[in-house]
Design goal:
mainly alpha; three-stranded antiparallel beta sheet; 13 helices; 3 strands
Length: 329
């Protein structure tokens, strides 16, 4: 007897669910193959594995059982564990991307609905004024030893180019015998730095003449400290590449010496981009920040954008000025 197969309605696809943990591993492998940054992959993996564990505990261990109700229960559990609304929103975003991947692979029928969402008020970041931040490296005396030359060059380059903490410590130098320049490095002649973008390979940034002079002084001094064969531009007392924690500690100590507290590396980037946005607008700031979309710049630096808009209205379109111009032709 021949079994008759039911024909799916036109325009629909057959869904073949799979174990949710295997689907999550496949999704992360896809993200890895697409070149996502290591820290991003770690964050995605943590969030997804947390959801996978919750799904199995709820008896929903296959992709076909992912639904709005399961997502809402997960958010409720996160809330009861003390996760902030911002954290919940971030995890929900990862879950939505995973659900879209499952739909594309034919293991899920529909993505999460728009009613599954988390509302939160973005925390406004208040950074010291640019002049205050610049004082951190300007008061460092270049005659105080190799650490002084290194620290002021690293901090000025980072502020000048609005670098993320992973970017300056990833920079390399061209060593004698190298056939080609490193993927990430600096060119003192053109004052260009090639820094690692967020999963997009090298990105170029321009630094100022003074920053170039400070870098040249450090490169000259570095030669006597670096271990043989070490390519890192910024090195520790061991003569090897600096670690993130070393840079964090160095910045806190230098900031305290300048009379500033609660200064972390991201504030340098935040203040610099905010200043560019105030002067040149969101599109220039987005390009300078190396954001993929201008909407990202506006979301992160919305306060700067709103302040600039209000100032432009006051300067060029105040009510008094517009009334004084008379009727519009």
């Amino acid at each position: 007897m021949t079994r008759r197969r039911h024909k799916l309605p036109e325009g629909t696809r057959r869904v073949v669910p799979m174990d949710i943990d295997l689907a999550a591993e496949n999704y992360l492998a896809r993200c890895r193959a697409r070149g996502l940054a290591l820290n991003t992959l770690k964050s995605y993996g943590t969030d997804l594995m947390q959801f996978v564990g919750f799904a199995y505990a709820q008896g929903a261990g296959i992709t076909g059982l992912m639904c709005d109700r399961l997502a809402e229960r997960w958010l409720d559990a996160l809330d009861s564990e003390g996760a902030s609304r911002r954290t919940q929103a971030r995890k929900l975003t990862v879950l939505r991307m995973f659900a879209r991947y499952c739909i594309g692979e034919g293991t899920l029928g529909a993505e999460l609905g728009p009613d599954v969402r988390v509302r939160y008020r973005a925390k406004r970041v208040t950074a010291p004024e640019l002049r205050e931040l610049a004082r951190i490296f300007e008061i460092i005396k270049p005659t105080a030893g190799w650490r002084a030359l290194r620290d002021r060059a690293l901090l000025r380059l980072s502020l000048d180019c609005a670098l993320r903490i992973s970017e300056p410590i990833a920079l390399d130098l061209t060593l004698p015998g190298d056939n080609r320049p490193p993927e990430f490095g600096i060119d003192l002649g053109t004052r260009i730095a090639r820094v690692p973008g967020k999963g997009t390979g090298a990105q170029t940034v321009q630094f100022s003449e003074t920053t170039g002079q400070w870098l040249a002084q450090w490169v000259h001094e570095r030669a006597a400290i670096a271990r043989p064969g070490e390519r890192a531009l910024f090195i520790s007392e061991r003569g090897t590449r600096m670690h993130r924690q070393t840079v964090h500690t160095m910045l806190r100590q230098r900031a305290a010496h300048a009379g500033l507290s609660d200064v972390h590396f991201q504030l340098l980037r935040h203040r610099r981009i905010g200043g560019v946005l105030d002067k040149l607008g969101d599109r220039a700031a987005s390009a300078f920040a190396r954001h993929s979309h201008v909407t990202t710049t506006n979301e992160v630096y919305g306060h700067h954008a709103a302040t600039r808009t209000q100032r432009m209205i006051a300067e060029h379109a105040s009510l008094d000025a517009m009334l004084a111009q008379g009727p519009t032709p």
